[in-house]
Design a protein that fits this description.
Quinone Oxidoreductase, Chain A, domain 1; Rossmann fold; single chain; 9 helices; globular; binds beta-D-glucopyranose; 345 residues; 2 domains; 26% helix; alpha/beta; 6-stranded parallel β-sheet
């Protein structure tokens, strides 16, 4: 079988490799890899901002946003040959810490978790992969290729859960949500907001290309600059553009919850008055919370949210498909890209 292999931090070693087909162990599925989605994390792994080889390995299979079809499954389990599946990214640390022991590896306390295609484990960018059945989630067959959006949607399902859990510290009756960024993460955040019946506003710099139309067709409002009269109850920050968060915090309504989901990878400085920032949070009961990764509950919520979405809208999110043979091209952003996928078939 062929696989997209890489060495973290050494882009010149990114290539297509021939590997032996994997053999499933006890309790594992054998899966035909269909698609992988590409995100900023994959670029960071290749270019060295993030990522770690499996112990003793010279290179690793890349990519963590998966979609495959089960070829072989353990007897008596929930998944059967022919099912469309998505593999979970993170594995609990070996200790395990209390959150990992409770299945909440997304809150791992000791940092010894591993992540497929990112940290210490081969990814899903291969024509065949295996996965413990307990770390795979069934996708609605009617979604077909669109189910490759499940992993990024799981990260947003967790972010929304965080907003709701923090919000429930008081009477929480959110009406308005601001999503910053109209990339795949922002658009999925907006989709989950619309599905919750909220008034969703999406802020992004671009004024052309597919993003404004995608936002509008979701029933949300698109902004290319921060509107003065918006006082969101929930903010989902999906750009990682560090400075934007300070602008946004000054505009939130009382008791607002802001969830940060993007990595900035930038050490740019901005001038800021710590006192004003303090007073803004205190006097408004504001909360800013970071959110990363997802556990099984979030993958299931994501699979349900995608199954309930308009498939023709989801299809417009996938703006470029790159064949496995040329997978490295998928890492270079092209104007008007929303979600880029690599076709493993
Ligand atoms: C992935 C998460 C992962 C995070 C940090 C994100 O792109 O979606 O599953 O935990 O990167 O490695």
């Amino acid at each position: 079988m062929k696989a997209a292999t890489l060495v973290p931090g050494a882009p010149g070693h990114s290539r297509v490799s021939d590997r032996d087909d994997p053999v499933p162990g006890d309790g594992e599925l054998l899966v035909e890899g269909l698609l992988v989605g590409v995100c900023g994390t994959d670029r960071e792994v290749v270019h060295g901002g993030h990522g770690e080889l499996p112990p003793g390995a010279q290179e690793m299979v890349g990519f963590h946003e998966s979609l495959g079809r089960v070829l072989d499954a353990p007897e008596g389990g929930d998944l059967s040959p022919g099912d469309l599946v998505v593999g979970v990214v993170r594995r609990p640390d070996p200790v395990p810490c209390p959150p990992c022991a409770a299945g909440e590896w997304d809150f791992c306390r000791n940092g010894r978790f591993t992540e497929r295609g990112i940290k210490g484990l081969d990814g899903y960018g291969a024509q065949r992969w295996t996965v413990p059945a307990a770390f795979a989630v069934r996708a609605d067959d009617r979604l077909g290729d669109l189910a490759v959006l499940t992993e990024p949607a799981s990260v947003l399902a967790k972010a929304w859960e965080q907003a709701e859990r923090v919000g429930s510290r008081a009477v929480f009756d959110p009406r308005t949500v601001l999503v910053t960024g109209a990339g795949p993460v922002g658009l999925l955040a907006a989709l989950l907001g619309v599905q919750r019946g909220l008034e969703v506003h999406v802020l992004d710099r671009v004024t052309s290309g597919p993003k404004p139309g995608l936002v509008r067709d979701l029933g949300a409002t698109y902004h290319s600059s921060l509107p003065d009269d918006l006082a969101p109850d929930v903010v989902l920050e999906c750009t990682g553009a560090g400075a934007l968060i300070f602008d946004v915090l000054g505009r939130t309504g009382p008791n607002a919850v802001t969830v940060l989901t993007g990595l900035s990878g930038s050490h740019r400085t901005v001038s800021l008055s710590p006192g004003a920032f303090n007073d803004e949070l205190v006097l408004d009961n504001d909360v800013v919370v970071g959110s990363v990764n997802a556990n099984l509950r979030h993958y299931r919520a994501a699979a349900d949210a995608l199954a309930a979405a308009d498939p023709s809208w989801l299809a417009r999110m996938i703006t470029r498909r790159v064949p496995l043979e040329r997978w490295t091209e998928a890492l270079t952003p092209v104007d008007d890209d929303v979600k880029v996928v690599v076709d493993l078939r």
